[in-house]
TrEMBL record:
Keywords of the record: Membrane, Transmembrane, Transmembrane helix, Transport
Taxonomic classification: Bacteria, Bacillati, Bacillota, Bacilli, Bacillales
Protein's organism: Paenisporosarcina quisquiliarum
GO term, biological process aspect, one: phosphate ion transmembrane transport
UniProt-listed InterPro entries: Phos_transporter
GO cellular component: membrane
The keyword Transmembrane is assigned to this record: yes
Protein name in UniProt: Inorganic phosphate transporter
Length: 332
C-alpha cells in the first residue's frame, strides 16, 4: 500500500481519537456548572451533552475550513500527511496529560500549536499562513476576556431582575432553567470544537491529493460528530470537579449566567468561522459571574493555575509536535 495512503488512514484514525478525547476532556466543561449545582445528575448531564454535541457538530463547517487552510496551506505543504500526524500525536498526548491531572487545558490551543510546530519543523517558519494564524490567535486571546466581561454583565443583570425574589426561590427556578442552558452550552461546544477534527481530516485528504477543494465531506462530518458524541458519553468527571467547584462556589443562578455567557461567545465565534477555546471561554465566564457576585468569592489561586496552563499549552505543543515530526520522519 502507498505510504501516503497509509499515513492518511493513520491521520483519520488519530483525528477521530483526538475528537473522542476532546469529548470527555472539553465537554466536561460544558456541563460542569449544571452538575455542581445538582440541576442534573452526572449521568443525565453527560448523555444530554453527548446528544447536543453530536447535533451541533453536524450543523456547521466554517470553523473546519478555517483549521484546514488558515494555519498552513495544505495545497503547498510537503510531507503534509506526516506533519498532520505529528500534530495529532502531540495534541492527544497533551490532552491526556492534562486530563489525568484534572486541569481544564485547551484542546484548541493544543491542536493549533501542534499544527504550527509540526509544519515549522518540516519546512521552517515561512510555511505558516501568518494572516490566518494571527487571526486565530487573536480569537483565542480575546474570547476569554469577552467571556469574563459578558459573565460579569449577565450576573449583574440577573441580580437586578431577581432582587425581589428570595434566594431559595431564585435558585429553585434557575435549577430548572439550567437544564436548557446546559443543552445550549453543549450544542455550541459541538458547533466549534468538533469541527477542528473535521478540518484536520480535510487537510490530510488535500495533502494526499484525495480531494481538490476545502469542502468538508459528509463522511468526515458524521464520523467526527460521532467520535465527539461517544467521547462525551464517557464523561470527564475530574475536570467537572475543577471547573464546577474549585473556581468558585456555584449556585444555580451563577451556573445559568455562566452557561448563557459562554454559549453566546462560542456560538458568536462559530458564526464568523473562528475556533476558540471552549475551556477558556467557560472558565472565564465563571470567573466573570463570580466577580459580579463577590470578587473575594472567586478562588483566584486556582484561576491562576488554569491561566498558566492556557499560556504554556501552545508553545509546549508546538515543541512536542516538532519532535514527533522529526521522529516520524526517520521512519517514513
Amino acid at each position: 500500500m502507498d505510504v501516503v495512503l497509509i499515513l492518511t488512514i493513520l491521520v483519520v484514525i488519530f483525528a477521530l481519537a483526538f475528537d473522542f478525547i476532546n469529548g470527555f476532556h472539553d465537554t466536561a466543561n460544558a456541563i460542569a456548572t449544571s452538575v455542581s449545582t445538582r440541576a442534573l445528575s452526572p449521568r443525565v448531564a453527560v448523555m444530554l451533552a453527548a446528544v447536543m454535541n453530536f447535533i451541533g457538530a453536524l450543523t456547521f463547517t466554517g470553523v473546519a475550513k478555517t483549521i484546514s487552510k488558515d494555519i498552513v496551506d495544505p495545497f503547498t505543504l510537503e510531507n503534509g500527511s506526516l506533519v498532520i500526524l505529528a500534530a495529532l500525536l502531540s495534541a492527544i498526548a497533551w490532552n491526556l496529560i492534562t486530563w489525568y491531572f484534572g486541569i481544564p487545558s485547551s484542546s484548541s490551543h493544543a491542536l493549533i500549536g501542534s499544527i504550527a510546530g509540526a509544519a515549522i519543523s518540516a519546512a521552517g517558519f515561512g510555511i505558516l499562513n501568518y494572516d490566518g494564524f494571527l487571526k486565530i490567535l487573536q480569537a483565542l486571546l480575546i474570547s476569554p476576556f469577552l467571556a469574563l466581561a459578558v459573565g460579569f454583565l449577565m450576573m449583574s443583570l440577573f441580580k437586578v431582575l431577581f432582587k425581589k425574589n428570595t434566594l431559595y426561590k431564585t435558585n429553585k427556578g434557575f435549577r430548572i432553567f439550567q437544564i436548557g442552558t446546559a443543552a445550549l452550552q453543549s450544542f455550541t461546544h459541538g458547533t466549534n470544537d468538533a469541527q477542528k477534527a473535521m478540518g484536520i481530516m480535510t487537510m490530510a485528504l488535500i495533502a494526499a491529493e484525495l480531494q481538490s477543494t476545502d469542502e468538508i465531506q459528509t463522511w468526515v462530518r458524521v464520523s467526527a460528530a460521532l467520535a465527539m458524541g461517544l467521547g462525551t458519553s464517557i464523561g470527564g468527571y475530574k475536570i467537572i470537579k475543577t471547573v464546577g467547584g474549585k473556581i468558585m462556589k456555584i449556585r444555580p443562578v451563577n451556573g445559568a449566567a455562566a452557561d448563557l455567557s459562554s454559549a453566546l461567545i462560542i456560538f458568536g465565534a462559530t458564526t464568523i468561522h473562528l475556533p476558540v477555546s471552549t475551556t477558556h471561554v467557560i472558565s472565564s465566564a465563571i470567573m466573570g459571574v463570580g466577580s459580579a457576585q463577590r470578587v473575594k468569592g472567586v478562588k483566584w489561586g486556582v484561576a491562576r493555575k488554569i491561566v498558566l496552563t492556557w499560556v504554556i499549552t501552545l508553545p509546549i505543543c508546538a515543541l512536542l509536535a516538532g519532535i514527533f515530526f522529526q521522529i516520524l520522519n526517520l521512519f517514513f
